[in-house]
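Renewal narrative, Specific Aim 1. Our central claim is that a sequence can be written position by position from structural information alone. The example that follows is taken directly from our test logs and has not been curated for this report. It begins with the structure tokens describing the chain, in the order in which they were read.
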């Protein structure tokens, strides 16, 4: 059983023990769902002390946030031209979705739950804005740039649209999970996002 007083790892061991905790979490999420994760069961699965856990993560929510904040979207290169803003938004969000899919279908289906506080915190607002480096913040930046260059309707609110688009993405992922991964999530996302932008341009 893990002990919070366990011997802290040496510097050379830190990266290995962090990876062990991450892999244990992935395994538990696949087996029992994101809502089941606790510091104790992750440490037991990884066969590491709770003291080692706290060398890498502040708490359970910090651990779960690893899977959504692993990389910043600030400088991520998009290939779709700004003139195709709907396609550019789809490319941006598919980068996030593909990251989850690389961890396996079962992980994504178990991670996207209403009880996952880390996910809701990431894909939400802080003080009426999006946290720096998040996919929503980058989406808002792309919409603002497209609007400034005349590729998107003047007068539309980039922040509100970014919230709408985030809701669309979450809906597509939940639908994918409910359908046991049988739908083409990218095709579905593109269809709905293009329809959303067409609707804005007609208002």
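The sequence written for that structure reads:
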């Amino acid at each position: 059983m893990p002990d919070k007083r366990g011997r802290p790892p040496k510097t050379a061991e830190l990266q290995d023990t962090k990876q062990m905790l991450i892999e244990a979490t992935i395994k538990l999420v696949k087996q029992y769902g994101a809502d089941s994760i606790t510091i104790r069961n992750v440490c037991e699965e990884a066969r590491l002390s709770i003291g080692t856990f706290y060398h890498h993560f502040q708490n359970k929510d910090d651990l779960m946030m690893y899977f959504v904040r692993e990389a910043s979207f600030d400088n991520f290169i998009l290939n779709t031209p700004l003139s195709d803003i709907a396609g550019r938004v789809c490319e941006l969000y598919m980068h996030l979705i593909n990251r989850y899919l690389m961890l396996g279908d079962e992980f994504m289906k178990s991670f996207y739950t209403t009880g996952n506080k880390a996910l809701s915190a990431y894909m939400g607002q802080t003080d009426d804005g999006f946290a720096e480096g998040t996919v929503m913040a980058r989406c808002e930046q792309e919409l603002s740039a497209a609007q400034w260059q005349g590729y998107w309707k003047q007068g539309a609110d980039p922040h509100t649209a970014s919230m709408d688009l985030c809701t669309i993405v979450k809906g597509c992922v939940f639908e994918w999970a409910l359908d046991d991964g049988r739908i083409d999530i990218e095709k579905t996302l593109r269809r709905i996002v293009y329809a959303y932008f067409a609707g804005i341009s007609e208002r």
